[in-house]
Design a protein that fits this description.
The protein contains three helices and no strands. By secondary structure, the chain is mainly α.
């Protein structure tokens, strides 16, 4: 169902630093419990907060969509 996305730990740290000072607007999204559980497990394996992983995944998805257009 989903393409495998494998982030390099160095990319994750660089992304966290890049986004640290960026202005953000709080938002909410309803996710299936299983998907949220998977996100938390993946983020734990990588040693980052799951919200950071979600932002990186969304950012990467937007880049891919723009590139494909």
């Amino acid at each position: 169902m989903y393409d495998k996305i494998d982030f390099d730990p160095k990319e994750i740290i660089a992304g966290m630093r890049r986004l640290k000072g960026a202005q953000r607007k709080p938002t909410s999204i309803a996710l299936e419990e299983e998907l949220l559980k998977e996100l938390k497990e993946l983020s734990h394996e990588r040693g980052i907060p799951y919200q950071v992983l979600m932002r990186l995944l969304i950012s990467e998805g937007v880049k891919r969509l723009k590139k494909a257009a």
